[in-house]
Amino acid sequence: MSLEHSQDVHLESSDTGVDILKIENAHAIARMSLFGGHVLGFMPKHDEQERLWLSDKAVLDGSKAIRGGIPICWPWFGDHPSQPELPAHGYVRNQNWQLLSIDEADEQTTLRLAPHTTLNEGFDGQAELELEVRVGRSLTVTLTTTNIGDNPLSYGAALHSYLAAEDVTQCVIEGLSGDYKDKLDSGRIKPTPHPYRISGEMDRVHLTMPERVRLQSPAHPMQLLQSGHDSIVVWNPWSNKSQQMSDMPDNGYQCFVCIEAAVTQGYTLAPKQSHQLQQQIT
Ligand code: BG6
């Protein structure tokens, strides 16, 4: 189904030159920007609690990646493995995407999107990339990479979800165990704390792959289900770094924590093979 014939999906604005879609059905309201294929917000109707944090200072005109919601990082996570001058987290979050289809069912509304191109400096794989966004009682985001070339390709990715918290210091992350790589301490390997509170800057790559993670908070506990990942990344910039970011309010760090389903070790796809990275937020 196309946008013109949809009951659930409407063009909310294109004032800034970027199309923002509003998705509303019996179960939830969500918003998406076609720049970056970027989910901006998701609020189930049964509790009216917004699950995603979007910065008040987020730039929505397509001139830079959007701060908040769910940035799509691809085809690398963090810095490029050999060319640090290239943009962090790849290039599709800085690109226009097109809406391929809409499917409306009783339980959910499903959108399929693709970036205008998957080729750019720093990646020479022949790949097809598709994002599926399912809006129902939960939000399910699935990123499918298909190798359409004749040679193997390797890629990294993340569904870089900014989870809303009224006061992040009151939150506890459950479900992570084992070791993590501390990006703030030269990649040193450290044990996951228990209980896992957010009380300072953190940039951690958890190398275990739990399917289920919970963000317990007094206002609205959230459940995250992941698949296709090799890591869970936990990130909060805290006070100093928030102040240094032009698209983040000074106290922005108090209102979110990123818990990202990520491929940080590189995933190799044989020709014709596909791989799916998925996160569900409830
Ligand atoms: C996290 C990275 O995933 O994203 C951090 O681990 C990074 O190192 C953060 O600072 C935010 O990245 P960006 O490019 O959106 O500011």
From TrEMBL:
<keyword id="KW-0413">Isomerase</keyword>
<comment type="similarity">
    <text>Belongs to the glucose-6-phosphate 1-epimerase family.</text>
</comment>
<protein>
    <recommendedName>
        <fullName>Putative glucose-6-phosphate 1-epimerase</fullName>
        <ecNumber>5.1.3.15</ecNumber>
    </recommendedName>
</protein>
<dbReference type="InterPro" id="IPR025532">
    <property type="entry name" value="G6P_1-epimerase"/>
</dbReference>
<dbReference type="GO" id="GO:0005975">
    <property type="term" value="P:carbohydrate metabolic process"/>
</dbReference>
<dbReference type="InterPro" id="IPR011013">
    <property type="entry name" value="Gal_mutarotase_sf_dom"/>
</dbReference>
<dbReference type="GO" id="GO:0047938">
    <property type="term" value="F:glucose-6-phosphate 1-epimerase activity"/>
</dbReference>
<dbReference type="InterPro" id="IPR008183">
    <property type="entry name" value="Aldose_1/G6P_1-epimerase"/>
</dbReference>
<feature type="active site">
    <location>
        <position position="160"/>
    </location>
</feature>
<feature type="active site">
    <location>
        <position position="260"/>
    </location>
</feature>
<dbReference type="Pfam" id="PF01263">
    <property type="entry name" value="Aldose_epim"/>
</dbReference>
<dbReference type="GO" id="GO:0030246">
    <property type="term" value="F:carbohydrate binding"/>
</dbReference>
<dbReference type="InterPro" id="IPR014718">
    <property type="entry name" value="GH-type_carb-bd"/>
</dbReference>
